[in-house]
Amino acid sequence: MTKIFKSFLATLSFLLLGISLSHAQIILNTTIGSTGYTGNSSNGYGWAITFVLENTSNQDMTLTDVGDWTNNTNNGETFSLYYSSSSLSGVPATVFPATGWNFIAQNTVSGITTNAFGVNNVISGMNFVLPANTTYRFALRTTGIRRFSGTGPGACTPISFSSSGVSLCVGDYLINGNSVGYAYIYGPRFFTGSVTLEPSIACTGAPVAGGIAEGNMDVCASDPFSLTDTGATTGVGNLTYQWQERVGTGAWTNIIGANNNLINISGITTATDYRMWVSCSNNLSDTTAPITVNIKPVTQCYCHVTTSNTSSGIGFFGTTNGLINISNTTGKASYSDYSSTLTVAQIPGGVVNFQINTVNSTAGMAIWIDWNDNGDFETSEQVFNAAALVSSSTGDITVPTNATVGPHRMRVASHQLTASPGPCGNLGSQVYGEAEDYNFEVIASTLCTGTPNVGAISNGSFSVCSG
Q1: What is the average pLDDT score of the chain?
Q2: Strand ranges (DSSP E) for 151-283?
Q3: For the whole model, what pTM was predicted?
Q4: Is 19 exposed, middle or buried (0-12, 13-18, 19+ CB in 10 A)?
Q5: pLDDT, tens digit, 9 for 90 and up, residues 154-179
């Protein structure tokens, strides 16, 4: 009896241990037990770094987190993860999204408190399934500077990190004779970070869909936006995640390729409802409460400025002779919107004087006013163009006599490399440009009524010498 009981305890211990192992977290970190993974190389804004995950086990694995070499300067940067089942080595795509690469998840980093570099999770809470006996290559893109280790073969060792049948392969690890690790078009480069996985367990019972974190929201027409499903069942196999959309009271339709907790929408032009549908292989399912994404008025949706300037641009913009005037020295970023706080005002036909000074060096300068309020800065609405690189510009703005009374958006642009900057995008090139938006208020002039008062000559009668 004692032997049977001991045998039972041994079997139970083994089973419990097996359960623990089957659900154990697997963390593969290239900076642990390695040489050369110092993150001492960096280049290129918006670049991706590639690496491979090989699942040689007979069990599906769920990728939950990805870490990258970062510090507190990376707070506010957005990291995006893509995968490919066909581009396993060699030069990858350079611009994402890309053909052959599927979006997985995206996150804007926050909460890194130290300025010491290390591996920090940049995307968490994923439920991406890496099937048994499958190899995928991943591309981790950042909107900031891409950091990595090594700039050639043999720079870092090892190049494969394995546990529980899963291997993280980086740098000059070869598939079909080519390296798997690239930063942009340059390779081999060595991913300096981590991946966290856990074995997938079978889906049983009814799944939970959770809810859409953003709730109802307003966006500009054709502007991209993201939605995130939180609280859904994760970490299990045989689950289907499917984002759906509808316009008005129409039928819900599946969004092709939208099968993760986060979805990036490239843009819409009409109000659209969204929801997430989660289904288990046992045919039980759940759906989030729908949310509605509405379209903002065009006067809230002026074209974006995308320059990366942070230290040069407009040092001063001011006006005189207006009924209300502006005096501003607080710009210098790539774009600043003062339209709700700073106003210049004048009547139809009236004149406003202005002055623009650069922070340093010389620059091209230009001003637009959206007189017709259609959300565009049209060529006919450009009221000033320096057409030369200067350190200061002055001029006059005459309000059209038929200008509509009320607020109008005014954009002031400066660019150190472009004599005639544009109002949108990079203003001329990606760096050294800045734009500032203000409110130009057209005030109705008061019509003359009744008999005017001519006043009196203050000096009265007096004599002067002839000639």
Answers
A1: 89
A2: 160-163, 166-169, 174-175, 178-179, 193-199, 211-212, 217-219, 225-230, 239-246, 253-254, 262-265, 272-280
A3: 0.65
A4: exposed
A5: 999 999 999 999 999 999 999 999 99
